[in-house]
Amino acid sequence: MKWWTQLMNANEPVDFLTALAIMLTFWFALALARHYGARAIVRLALRTQARWGELLAETARATSLLLLLPVALHAGASALDLPPRLERLVQLAAVVGLLLQAGLWANRWLTRWIAHRLELSREREPKEATALSLLGFAARIAVWSLVLLLALNQLGFDITALIAGLGIGGVAVALAVQNILGDLFASLSVVLDKPFEVGDFIVVDGLRGTIERVGIKSTRVRSLDGELLVFANADLLKSRIRNFQRMLERRVEFTIGAVYHTPLDKVREIPRMLREIIEATPQTRFDRAHFKVYGDSALIFEAVYYVLAQDYNTYMNVQQQINLAIFARFGRERIDFAYPTRTMYVNPAPATGS
Fold this sequence. Notes:
8 strands; three-stranded antiparallel beta sheet; five-stranded antiparallel beta sheet; SH3 type barrels; alpha+beta; Alpha-Beta Plaits; 3 domains
């Protein structure tokens, strides 16, 4: 072949031996760097207890000597006088090998990072596992797509038309499955932003219940009546969600009524009684108590306090304790609770003569 003849005529045997020595030395150095570099990173990670060290060590172990062989060949070829076409071929092989190796490094790093996140999510937040797996899959596709496009560009292909075609095809696919993609990105938003989590009690448009599962397309909520409510993730994020699980404290407002013939001094004392009862109840913070309004059948008193817990059962236990204390205190003070009453005045019939 013509290029072989040119190669042999332009170089002496010692040049070929030098090139071979450079190539083998470079390749052997890469093998040593991969082996001892990974071990050094692991030792550093063990001393510092750093998670990134383990990830870097795993990434270093993904180094492929076969893919780096064209790089070593290119280093050795620097000692030779190569024909232009052969020199270009060696250069392209080295560049493609480096691109594929970079893809392997990125793929290994993503795989190990996603595996670590999945391990943590199964222990703390199981709902994240599916979304994280999907996110890792999409990231790996993006990495290899970029590697492929760069490799084709180096090989002389015009990737502009390919990118344009992929863009048009992507738009067509996105329009066809826009609802599915909307729910998919909504699920990723739930995972990353965490507006709610499994186990949270939420209220959405008058529907209330406890979240059982956050999926890729929908979220499942178990209502208080027992039925399963299924919300599309995109629709759920567009709604106004009331997350009771995130409350730091619960505001409680309640009223009681005393009969109209309650003595004035007792009426003045009732707000103070309510305050003492609430302040004596654990897990509460008193806000106010007032004689609010004259009702149809009662003198209405209003009290407001905060329960220093988010659990609904805790709130009900506190309110029950307060109600029992009010009942006992009113009994000791001889204050009667009001209830709806109606007084009828009957005029006597006029006397008639016999």
